[in-house]
UniProtKB/TrEMBL annotation:
Destroys radicals which are normally produced within the cells and which are toxic to biological systems. Keywords: Copper, Metal-binding, Oxidoreductase, Zinc. It comes from the Bacteria. Residues 18-145 form the Superoxide dismutase copper/zinc binding domain. Belongs to the Cu-Zn superoxide dismutase family. CDD domains: Cu-Zn_Superoxide_Dismutase. Binds 1 zinc ion per subunit. Binds 1 copper ion per subunit. Its cofactor is Zn(2+); Cu cation. GO terms for molecular function: copper ion binding; superoxide dismutase activity. It catalyses: 2 superoxide + 2 H(+) = H2O2 + O2. This is Superoxide dismutase [Cu-Zn]. Residues 60-82 are annotated as: Disordered.
Amino acid sequence: MSGMAMASLSPAAAGGATGLVMFHAKGEDLMVHVKASGFAPGSMHGFHVHDKGNCASPDFSSAGGHFNPGAHPHGPQDAARHAGDMPNLQADAQGKVDQKFVLKGAKLQGETGLVGRAVIVHADADDFKTQPTGNSGARMACGVIAAH
């Protein structure tokens, strides 16, 4: 079984970001590293794992809703949350993201694993309150998570 997975981000038809999302198994958690560009300088973006590994539709609606096998409410990392809820991405002054964080209790493989699902970067920041999406706006980039 692989201890790593990756997703290559493609921009939405209306424009968006490109880059890579890397997942490394670390004990009971996953280390996530996002390297992406094409953002407005200083902007913040909601970032989630979505249920279906399908980025085929122009607006990425084909990826479905947030990955939520435990039927939890949408929320921040330190509360009950969807398995696919991740921290906001923060772009630097050049519109680039190079961000690492730990996704607690996440797995790569199996029924509750992330491999085969999609990562979505949203146009707006996640407020971590609004159900079920965090009010993070349109989907601006999508990538299917594949074992590596």
